[in-house]
Every structure is written in structure tokens, then in C-alpha cells.
Amino acid sequence: MKHCLRPIAVLLAACIAITATRGRDSATPYSPNLYTRLHRAAAASGQRRLPGDAAELPRRVYPTLDLAVEALGVEALHEGYAPDMIPFTGKGVTIAVIDAGIDPRHEAFRLAGEPVATRVASYMRTISSAESGSGETEYTVTTAPLHLEEQEIDLDIEGHGTHVAGIAAGNGGAGPYTGMAPGAELFMVSMGERLYDDEIALGMRAALDYADATGRPMVLNFSLGSPLGPHKGTDKLTGILRDYPAEGRIACFSAGNDGCYHVSLTRDFASRPGELATALAYYNTGTATRSAYVEAYSMDSREFEMALTVIDFNGSVHEVWRSEFVPADAFDESGVSVLLDSAAAFFPELAGYFSGKILMARGTEDDGAFSMALLADFPDAEVDSRYGLGLVVRSAARADVMLVSDFNQAYFRSYSMDGYTEGDAGCSISEYCTSPLVVSVGSWNTRKSWTDLKGDVHELDEQFYGACGAVASYSSYGTVRGDESIVLPHVLAPGTEVISSIPAMYADNAVYTHDMAGNPQYWGNMSGTSMASPAVAGVVALWLEACPRLTRDDVIEVMRATSVRDEYVERAPNGSAFGKLDAYEGLKYILQTMDVPLTPSTPSGLLVRSCGSGKLECVLPFSAEGGVAHLYTTEGILLESKRFSGSAFFITAAPGLYIVRAETASGEARSRVAVR
After folding, report:
1. At CA 169, angle to CA 545 and CA 518, rounded to 5?
2. What is the pLDDT of residues 308-347, one digit of tens each?
């Protein structure tokens, strides 16, 4: 796939005037064999059309839907506590937003104060091979200088990507809702209403190729994902990152929004022999299943078996039928067994309870591990259908098994039936987040209330989300199977009721508007780890501005050393490995402990933070054995000089505006500061 995108990167780097490049990518999509086999078998009887002769069906994933800036300590990095000095804004760094519903024309993505000049270096639209009609992944790309008014704008899924990009790098439109890195360049990939992993792979490679061609550091944000997968860090899509330099290439993925739902089950049959039974509940009502997709993975090659049950919801919920365990010889050469459909059925008894399709697949993963999957679809089922589907797992080989469900279809319930097990969220973390190549991000609540443009006041729904300051109830979590010491997500950021840029067509509940040359622009709120991930991506862009050679492992080290573990994080079952991100302490750690590339003659921004009572902490972007700090008025009158050693010093002043300048043998740093 990479070679197909190299010409795109060349065009982007050259900034050829008005380019609306179209192309196709026919490389094999990145998706699991189980998923492909089941959906191909389902399609064989006309359930849906599949793309051409693609080797694997693209797998669908989902978006993981002012105070955030303050909560992360970004305000200090933007302002240095001065009204006209912005030492760190992401300048020189590219943020790639690979999402859907992106409006690149929004004022938030212009240069601050400029009605025309844009920070969008590329706007790419993709179409999955599952939807293109050609059997290939297709794209159009428009590069700088952009003529966006001539391009089709993606306004699907409520402008999700517009909101996400604004959190990472929005300029605020002269209002209070500035993103984390308002000086960063943007590379935008928009995928439409349905998101598939072949599109994500295409966008990821295009963005990374652009970073290679321009030599700029890049943060990639993916506010999307799915809990489906073996959770071993073996995901093929994130493996694309291995094809590119590690320095200055950081990928942030949202953890997912399944943290309060019963989407997973685990059973080590070596320590707990017997059978594991559970019922599949419809995600929207908790009643009988209308559709389901479940994957099950063994830790190794040891096999397990599945059987089906029928649950009767009339009166007290109870089991009325149970199948035999599906034998190995029931699966065809592709590894699929049809248990129920209109043409043939391994269990004809199921037709007395359901009208639709049930298929099962079995296979072997790339690492030799045994796996199975179940797909059920009852298109004529009612919300209050009498009968629901359950499943049973056993393993004579004593396998260690994990089951995970696509929550957008069904989840695991026991209904208090004897012998049935309730699901949990212990493996709800997105499969992408288990990769050792990415940064995974969960969510916490920062906004207590807000007022919309109609004057209506809204309050945080603490009953659902949890208290203000708490880890959001929905924030997904888990570990890497086989190494449970790796706790995920790595870090938390504000994700609940975050206010950011939105397309005008979704302005009904907007909280802020700004007129851009007669064209009103809007900002509104959304919730989800989708909102937390770009906050972290924007902060990482600030860090990359200070130290462009940071790797993903460097970023993990910084987060481990500087994130905040407060009482909310400590007691939350869905917390994180490190806690709540602290942008300022992270940058301070980078400047003090990492090799920041500066020349002795290059003046640079001085990081300054108020400690209260007129005391300022000043951090140099390099270490010095000896130096002199000077405090000046804004008119240049010297007020005080003091000697210091190391990479930080403190200075005290009465309220007012000042200039602080540090002179050392290693270089000079200065900043305007405000003492409040």
C-alpha cells in the first residue's frame, strides 16, 4: 500500500496549486480473518454486497464520541501568563486528524485573525472498498494552497471530526474555546458516515508519507476504534507505524466508550473448568438479541467449543433450548458453519425461535492462537421479542478464553439465570490501544455546567458520567492479554461535554458563535474518549515543538513521570496506568531531562508558570551550570538580576507585566510574563 501513496506525499510536499487528486488503493485491507469469513458467508445469501475480489472484508469501526485547556495545564504553555507571548502553540508540528465529519473550512482551522489563510495542509476524502463499487479503496485529496470551497465537505456523524480537530488545534475564533495546539498545521482525512479500517490504513500512510516528505514532526489522532480483537497488541493496522521513523511520529488512539457496558468475558478453563454460559442482550434495550457479533480468542493454540441456547423472556427469564456443541466437522473449508438460515441449517430447531441467520467461524490467528466468532442477524425481530440468543463455551484443552462483543449490536447478560455469567468491561479497551506503538487515551469529567446560545443552562449528568473530576463512566479500559502488567489506557484527558468547533448545520445546541466575514461559525459540546484523544494529541504537538525528536516511548516516559493520580483515578475501576495528563509538567520534564535540540546562539521561549503570591517558576529549554536571570519592565528597565544553576529558577515580582531573560553559556531564553 505504501508505494501507492508515495505520489500523494510528493504532491503534498510540493504544495502544487489546486490539486484535487483522485486515486484507488487495491492493497489488501487490514482486517481479521474471522470477521471476513463470517460476513462473506452471510453475504452469500444476499444479506449484503461485498467488494470485488478483496482478500479480506474491511472491518467497520466507530467514533468514540476552554475547561479542557485549563485542566491540562495548557494555558500556561500558550500564554506564559502574558497576553501577547505564546511560546508553545504547536508551531512547526503537523497534527493528522483521521476521522469523519470534517469541515476544513471552519474558522477554527484558519490562521488566527486571518479570514482566508488556512492551516490545513491537506484535506483527503476516502471511500472504503466495502462502499466504493470498484472493490478498491478510493480517495480524493486537495493540497495547499487549498481551494476548499470547490471540494465536497464531509458533514456526516454530526461533524465529529470537526469537533475533534478543533480540540487538537482549533484557534477558538477569538473566543474562549481554543484547542491545545492552535499554531499546528493540520492534515485531515475524512471518511464519511461509515468508518472502515482500509480507509484508516490509507489515511495513516498518506499522513506519514507527508511527514516524511516535509520533515515535520507529526502527531496522528484516531478518535475511533472497536473492542473486537485478541487484545495482544498484534493489530495489523497500527503495525503500519513500524514502516516509518519512530522519532517525531506519535499516534494517539481513543480508548473507547464501552467502559460501563458488559462487552467482555474471560475464563481460564485450566483454573475454572466446566462451562461458561451467557445471554446476548440487545444493546439499546437490554432485551432479546436482534443482532450480534462476538469474537472469542484463546491465549494459545488450545481449542474450545461453542454451543447455542435459546432464552425465553415470557415471564421469568429462562433457558428453553440448548444445542450440542458445534463439532469441528460442521465447518466448511473456509472455517464457517451455517447454524441457521433460510437455505440450510446445522440446527434446524432454531427456526422455531428465530427468523434470520446465525453463522459461526473458527480459525487460527497469526500467532497460532485458536479463535472463534459468532454472527447473528434477526432482521424481523421486535424490541420485545419473546426469544433471545445465548451461547456456551467449554474447553477440554483447558484454554484461557476471552469473549468480546460489538456493543453496537449486543452485550453479555446473565438475567440472573442459574449457570449464566454476566459480562463486564474488563476487556472493553479498543483493540488498537493494545498496540505497543501507540498512546491510548481515556476520559475524565471537567465541565460542571454550560449555557447554550438560547440561554438554557445545562448541568453535567453525574448519574451517568460520574462526578465532575471523576474518570468518565464510559471510558474503556483493560490490559494487554499475556502481559496484564500493561494497564490501559495510558493516560486520561478531559472528554465529557468538551466544547469545540462544529459545522453550522449542527448549531441548534451551540454554545458560542463568531462571525467570519459574514459567515457565522459555531462551537458546541460533545462527550467521549473521542474528545480526550485529540486533547492529548494537541499536547503532544506542544511537546514536539519543544523537542521534535520525541518517540512514542519518550512520550510514555513523560506521561508516566508527570501525570496526576488523584483520588478519582486511584479509586476508579476504569482509571489509567499513569493518571490525568499534565501538559505543563510534561513539557518541564522534557526540557529538563531530554535532549532538546537548541544551538547556543538561538534565543528560545522560557517556560513560566505562576506559583502564586507573585512567585514565578521559570524553566529553561536546556541545562546550565551557571547563569544570570534578569527581570525587566516592559519598557526595558532592569529591576533585578540573580545567579542560578540548573534548568530552572524562581523569581518574585509585584503584580504587573515583565520580561524575564536568562543568560547562560549554553544559550539565552526569554519571555514576557504577567504576575497576577
Report:
1. 135
2. 999 999 989 999 999 999 999 999 888 999 999 866 789 9
Three cell numbers, residue 533? 484523544
The single-letter DSSP state of residue 404 is E
Residues 6 or more apart whose CB falls under 8 angstroms from that of 402 comprise 230, 231, 264, 265, 266, 296, 297, 299, 427, 481
Residues in the chain: 676
Is residue 146 very low, low, confident or very high in pLDDT (cuts 50, 70, 90)? low
Backbone angles phi, psi at 206, to 5 degrees: -60, -45
Distances (CA, A) of 65 to 154, 254, 309: 17, 9, 34
Q: How many CA atoms lie within 13 A of 262 on its CB side?
A: 19
CA dihedral 591, 593, 597, 600 (to 10 degrees): 80
**Residue 314: Cβ-neighbour burial (10 angstroms; 0-12, 13-18, 19+):** exposed
* In contact, 13 and 207? CB cutoff 8 Å: no
pLDDT in tens, 60-75: 665 555 444 455 555 5
Give the other-Cβ count within 10 Å of 285's Cβ.
10
What is the per-residue pLDDT for 12? 29
**Assigned C-alpha cell, 396:** 477440554
Round to whole Å and give the CA distance between 87 and 90.
9
CA torsion, points 127, 133, 138, 143, in degrees to nearest 10? -70
Q: What does the DSSP 8-state code read for residue 24?
A: E
Burial 41-67 (b: 16+ CB within 10 A, else e): bbeeeebeebbeebebbbbbbbbbbbb
